[in-house]
Amino acid sequence: MASKANKIALFTINTPQMRAFHLTWMAFFVCFFAWFACAPLMPVIKGEFGLTVGQIANINIAAVAITILVRLVVGPMCDRFGPRKAYTWLLALGAIPVLGVAAAQSYESFLFFRLLIGAVGASFVITQYHTSVMFGPKVVGTANAAAAGWGNAGGGAAQALMPLLLGAMIMLGVSEGYGWRAALLVPGVLMLVMAAVYWRFTQDCPEGNYAELRAAGVNIEAGKKGGWASFKAAAANYRVWMLFVTYGACFGIEIFIHNIAAVYYVDNYNLTLAQAGMAAGSFGLLALFARALGGWVSDRMALNGNLNRRVTLLFILMIGEGAGLLWFANAGTVGFAVVAMLVFGLFTHMACGATYALVPFIDGKALGGVAGIIGAGGNVGAVLAGFLLKGTGDIRQTLFVLGGLVMLSALCAVAVRFSANPDEQALSASATA
């Protein structure tokens, strides 16, 4: 019978583990491209609808708010129905509001579709779940972080490519008002294509699909506590809530930066839309390697089986993220701002990777619930950052406050520490073995 992979054979798709690895990050990339496709076009959309700072803040909050609920639900659903079905349905249904936002004719309708688009952000949880059940403890941190990082780069790609796509539409003779709408059709179509590919070429775990395995009487450890039971088991574990906070302080900041970066560069440094898109896109494109680096370093530090080394790494990365964010908030020129953003972005993405390098070791029998709750923490952080921006009315001031809060939240990473008892660490590790 097939088992979890203990190495990442990057240049092959001959095994179910590597097919799942590559298709999860590709699906995640498409979802994140769709999720953030509106953000770099906001300066144009702002002008068309006459949006105020408060309305833009509402749109940013809406973009991440519903993801909290969907992430909480989709993790346990992976335990119940399997990641293959969960991802296929998320891609297919998520394409509807992505296509719908292009038809928005008012602030209210745009806000509504932007709210629904946030559901595709739950793709992250399915990605982490699928790689967690496919790879063994020696490489699961690297697999989780690499798949998440490469998928996350979809947000950066959207920042850089959507303004260029709009420009191409205008060159073809389409007006700016119709051009941004036509550009937003592209990610919706890509999601439908990816849904078909995911259904055809993946399976739930190394042994096969959950439904068939259960029908054959096979015990599925990773999906043992399905649905509500998975959620309750995860919610009762204090380490889950500590990582809920830390993930809010790293991934939540990442989402917030994606949503405000283009507007920030245009308003504060007088960049053009294309220049702002390239600057903002560089932050997201760090995910191509930085998340994977965080997971890889976490795996290397834990080679002797000491889970607390993973925890210490997360603490250090979050302190670096907070310090870098304070630097970014105080950058006086666009050159320093971009450098500062790349520095704190490196720490931010690595912290995200280091967080999910810990997730498989919290409770392997309720993996979906653990992944879902912690993943939802990222969106809670983004929503709270959005409300902070709405309260201050100033992006620079908001960034400064967030820098201090990130450094404070690093204390939650320390609280995740596992006991020195080797039996507990062995028990945690055995959940993914």
UniProtKB/TrEMBL annotation:
Membrane topology summary: Multi-pass membrane protein
GO molecular function: nitrate transmembrane transporter activity
Protein location: Membrane
GO biological process: nitrate assimilation
Presence of keyword Transmembrane helix: yes
Keyword Membrane: yes
Keywords associated with the record: Membrane, Nitrate assimilation, Transmembrane, Transmembrane helix
Membrane-crossing residue ranges in chain numbering: 20-42, 54-74, 86-104, 110-129, 150-172, 178-199, 240-266, 272-290, 311-329, 335-359, 366-389, 395-416
Top-level division of the source organism's lineage: Bacteria
Gene Ontology CC annotations of this record: membrane
Pfam (any one): MFS_1
Gene3D superfamilies: MFS general substrate transporter like domains (1.20.1250.20)
Classification via InterPro entries: MFS (IPR011701), MFS_dom (IPR020846), MFS_trans_sf (IPR036259), NO3_transporter (IPR044772)
Domain Major facilitator superfamily (MFS) profile: 20-421
Family: Belongs to the major facilitator superfamily. Nitrate/nitrite porter (TC 2.A.1.8) family.
PANTHER family according to UniProt: HIGH-AFFINITY NITRATE TRANSPORTER 2.3
Protein name: MFS transporter
